Each structure stands twice: as C-alpha cells, then as structure tokens.
C-alpha cells in the first residue's frame, strides 16, 4: 500500500502531466500554423531505400525523394518495374539504384541489404512500402496468398528494419517509414488477410516507436502512413461512392512531406483520423448500421486488382 508521501508524489506528477498535455496540444496547434516549407528537413545526399519502388506510389516517392537530392534505392520483385523507376529518376536528373528482391524471402532480404551497404552505403531513410492484396473472402483465400500477404505487408518490415536500423541507432539518426493503410485502423469485408496484416504493420510502427523512445533514440524517427483507396491499380474495381479515391501523385507528395516533417502518423485524407476514434466511442451495432448505410459490404464487390488489369 502506498504511503501518503507516495500518493502526493503521484498526484504532483499527474498535475505536471496535465500541464504538459496542454502545452503539447498548443505545440501541435502552433506547428499546424507554421508553413510546411519551414518544417521540412534536408535529405540531400541521404540514402533512401523504398521497397516496392517498381510501381505505384513507391515509384512516385522515388522520383520525389530523388528530386530533393536523396540517393534513392528501389527494391522490388519486378525487375522491369525497377528498371523503369531507375530510368525515370535518372531522366529527371536524380540518382537511383535498383535491386531485384523478393521480400517474402528473408535470406534474400538480408543478402540484398549486405550488397546495398557495400555498393551504395548505409541507409538513412527506410520506406517499407511494398504491399500485396488477395481481395477474396477468408474461405476463398488460398493459404499461399495469406502467407504472402503477411510476408510482404508486415514480416518484411522486421527483416528490413533489423538489417538497417543498427546504423541509425549507432548515430541516433535515421527514419523508418511504414506505408500501412486505413485497413490497418478500420476493417472491411473481403480483406481479412489484408486488414490483419495492415493492423500488424500499424502495431509494428507503434511498438517500434515506443521502443526507440525507451532506448533514448529520439533521433531515429518513425512515420506510419494510413491512406484510403489510391488509384494505382492495386485495388482496381474496389471502393465506395462515399469515400474519395486518392490520386497517387498527391499521396506520394503528402508522404514525402510527412517524412520531411517527421510526422508520426499520416492519415490520407486527413479527416480519416476520425474513424478509429468513432469506432472506440460508438457501440458496435451503431457502427454496423453506419457500415450498411455507407454500403461497406460492397466495397470489394467489383474488385479485380492487378491480376486482371496487368
Ligand atoms: N492502392 C491502394 O488503394 C492503397 C491504399 C492504402 C495503402 N496502400 C499501400 O500502399 C503501398 C503501395 O501500394 P501501391 O498502390 O503503390 O501498389 P502497387 O501494386 O503499385 O505497388 C506495390 C509494389 O510492391 C511490389 N511487391 C509486391 N510483392 C513484392 C515482393 N514479394 N517483394 C518485393 N516487392 C514486391 C510490387 O512489385 C509493386 O511494385 C502498399 O503497401 C499498399 O498496401 C495502397
């Protein structure tokens, strides 16, 4: 049982926490008012690895990061996609290296990491972007697809982070970015494996962020990105008339800005942060009704994904 002195100490610390919380709210408010151009860090000469840089927002991020002066590296299972990215970045005057890597293969990830360090250098910013989607109900999802979804969407984050974070910890400087999804915050029918893997990716980001703070490594930043649907082709055919389909170029621009401003969590569109809050506050049956009104049961009805479009 705590004695009176201990209780007083806890009360005093809670009061201090309340004052600090008000300060942190005000700090966020002031930061919102400061123009972005004053908040961006300089990444000139930084080595930035983007997984899944062979298409979609990965390629666009490579282009935008290279335009900021970073030395960009793309890792993709698609050699052709990687080649196209290198060609586009170089044509725009940037530096880009490509490695064909299957992120499902842990040993291949570690081998590629060793080569990258020898041939290009240590990674300053790691962007875990590659992702896959099965797009079928759980009972119709082949076991291999479920396994692949977890391998690419979350387990690969462990291997890449373990491969590159040592250098960041030693310098207390670096950045680990995880491209998750709104499917990592809310759920949707026809996406059980995808939602589970993206919830795990969000958990990975939050747990890693906490661990870094506990270690006192405040110089190693983390960013988690949770976008809604983007018109890259990955979710071709899926969507809802009640939610906007995001333009890939805008998403890539926002993600790069979030990296440069050390944003912890980025929701796209920004107002999507309300949805997880709503789920916490509202009764389950009320959320089920809202889901029906917004026709969420039809979200994946016309999904074709990349399989039929490419
Ligand atoms: N498109 C959307 O609607 C949407 C919405 C929210 C989040 N996201 C997430 O954004 C990220 C990028 O998606 P995108 O829309 O640009 O998709 P995309 O399909 O255009 O790009 C994904 C890239 O990952 C690569 N990849 C897949 N499996 C791989 C593997 N085993 N090893 C190496 N590379 C592999 C692909 O070759 C591809 O180049 C993904 O993590 C995705 O889950 C996408």
Question: Overview of this structure, please?
Answer:
The chain has 310 residues and is an alpha/beta fold. The chain is built from ten helices and seven strands. The mean pLDDT is 95. Residues 52, 54-58, 76-78, 81, 101-104, 129-132, 152, 179, 181, 227, 229-230, 232-235, 306 line the site of nicotinamide-adenine-dinucleotide (NAD).
Taking strands numbered 1, 2, ... along the chain, how are they ordered across the largest sheet?
3-2-1-4-5-6-7
- E-strand count: 7
Main β-sheet description: 7 strands, parallel
Specify the CATH architecture. Answer: 3-Layer(aba) Sandwich
Using the coordinates shown, work out and report the CATH topology: Rossmann fold
> Given the helix and strand composition, which structural class is it?
alpha/beta
Using the alpha-carbon principal axes, give the shape: globular
List unreliable stretches of 5+ residues: none
Number of helices: 10
Q: Top keywords for this entry?
A:
single chain, 310 residues, alpha/beta, Rossmann fold, seven-stranded parallel sheet, 10 helices, 13% strand, globular, binds nicotinamide-adenine-dinucleotide
Short description:
By secondary structure, this protein is of the alpha/beta class. The protein has 10 helices and 7 strands.
């Amino acid at each position: 049982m705590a004695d009176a002195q201990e209780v007083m100490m806890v009360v005093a610390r809670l009061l201090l926490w309340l004052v600090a919380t008000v300060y942190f709210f005000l700090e966020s408010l002031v930061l919102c008012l400061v123009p972005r151009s004053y908040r961006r860090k300089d990444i000139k000469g930084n080595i930035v690895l983007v997984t899944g840089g062979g298409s979609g927002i990965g390629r666009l991020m490579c282009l935008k990061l290279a335009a900021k002066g970073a030395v960009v590296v793309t890792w993709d299972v698609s050699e052709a996609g990687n080649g196209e990215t290198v060609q586009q970045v170089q044509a725009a005057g940037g530096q880009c290296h490509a490695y064909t890597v299957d992120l499902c293969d842990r040993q291949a990830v570690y081998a590629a990491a060793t080569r990258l360090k020898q041939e290009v250098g240590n990674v300053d910013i790691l962007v875990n972007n590659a992702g896959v989607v099965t797009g079928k109900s759980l009972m119709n999802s082949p076991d291999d697809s479920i396994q692949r979804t977890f391998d690419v969407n979350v387990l690969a984050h462990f291997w890449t982070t373990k491969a590159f974070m040592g250098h960041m910890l030693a310098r207390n400087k670096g950045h680990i970015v995880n491209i998750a999804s709104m499917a990592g915050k809310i759920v949707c029918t026809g996406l059980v494996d995808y939602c589970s893997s993206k919830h795990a990716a969000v958990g990975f980001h939050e747990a890693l962020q906490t661990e870094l703070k506990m270690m006192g490594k405040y110089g190693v930043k983390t960013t988690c990105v949770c976008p809604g649907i983007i018109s890259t082709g990955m979710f071709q055919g899926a969507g809802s008339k009640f939610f906007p389909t995001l333009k890939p170029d805008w998403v890539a621009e926002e993600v790069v800005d979030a990296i440069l401003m050390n944003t912890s969590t980025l929701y796209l569109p920004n107002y999507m942060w309300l949805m997880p809050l709503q789920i916490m506050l509202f009764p389950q049956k009320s959320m089920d009704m809202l889901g029906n009104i917004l026709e969420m049961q039809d979200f994946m009805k016309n999904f074709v994904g990349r399989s039929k479009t490419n």
